[in-house]
Amino acid sequence: MRLDKMLSECGVATRKESARAARAGSITVNGTPVRSADVKVDPAVDAVVYCGTPVRYRKFFYFMLNKPDGYVSATEDGRDPVVTELLPEEYRRLGLFPCGRLDKHTLGLMLLTNDGVLSHRLLSPKHHVEKSYGFTVKFPLSSADIDALEGGVDIGGYVTKPCRVNLSNERNGVIAITEGKYHQIKLMMEAVHNQITSLERLTFGPLSLDPTLERGEWRELTEEEITLLNQQ
User: Fold this and answer.
1) What pLDDT was estimated at residue 91?
2) Which helix (H) or strand (E) holds 177?
3) Average per-residue pLDDT for the chain
4) Sign, CA torsion 203/209/215/217
5) Which runs of consecutive H residues, i.e. helices, occur in 46-107?
6) Torsion of CA 111, 226, 116, 108, to 10 degrees
7) Domain spans of the chain?
8) For the domain 130-204, what is the CATH superfamily, name and number?
9) What's the whole-model pTM score?
10) Active site residue ranges
11) Would you call 98 exposed, middle or buried from its count of C-beta atoms within 10 A (0-12, 13-18, 19+)?
């Protein structure tokens, strides 16, 4: 692999930046400065240091984000800010995208990655990856409402799959679903003549929202979390 390609894929530097750094003697491979960024390196073997910082090659990256209100689950939008803008520039170079969607005003756990194969598998209906959401509704939910929601409701020509609803009081609780239809939870509540007033994703498969992350904050997934995701 070319050195500049490795640095680009790691989000360390663009190819032009790599070329400038190499000419300045700021990149070493196995302790020796290189003067050209097009030299070949083996990421699994060679020790690359860019401007004093060791570079560890990874093909895929995984980030947990605590999505704030008002951000769109996309990589670009003509009107509103997008979730990838919450990451530093060097990470935005990695081709990250949101795995699944949260509505503009839905908060909480979002997975950002450049691993398209894993994302497709996690979102595939046949894998039934569970997601849970804390919610508040406008009107009290009755036991009949809960039975209807858990058994499946019609959300406009589509009957939802069974889900789980646990109430903390008549208007607040957690709902766990295994699908991801557009505005699904909002439409499910409307099917029982109610209205969502707040919604926050708490879990996505084996991931739980890190309580230390404030709105808009992010962190890389741990190796254990990545392994659990790949087992889904």
Assistant:
1) 85
2) strand 172-177
3) 94
4) negative
5) 89-92
6) -10
7) 3-55, 62-124+207-230, 130-204
8) Alpha-L RNA-binding motif (3.30.70.1560)
9) 0.84
10) 103
11) buried
Q: Are the folds of 3-55 and 62-124+207-230 the same?
A: no
3-state secondary structure of 220: strand
- In the chain, DSSP finds a helix count (H) and a strand count (E) of 7, 13
| Topology of the domain covering 62-124+207-230 | Alpha-Beta Plaits (3.30.70)
**CATH superfamily ID and name for 3-55:** RNA-binding S4 domain (3.10.290.10)
Amino acid letter at 216?
Answer: G
Which residues of the chain carry a pLDDT beneath 50? Answer: none
The DSSP bridge partners found for residue 133 are: 175, 201
- Alpha-carbon distance of 193 to 195, in angstroms, equals 7
Q: Which residues of 177-215 are buried (b: 16+ CB within 10 A; e: fewer)?
A: beeeeeebbbbbbebbebebeebbbbbbbebebeeeeee
Q: How many residues does the chain have?
A: 232
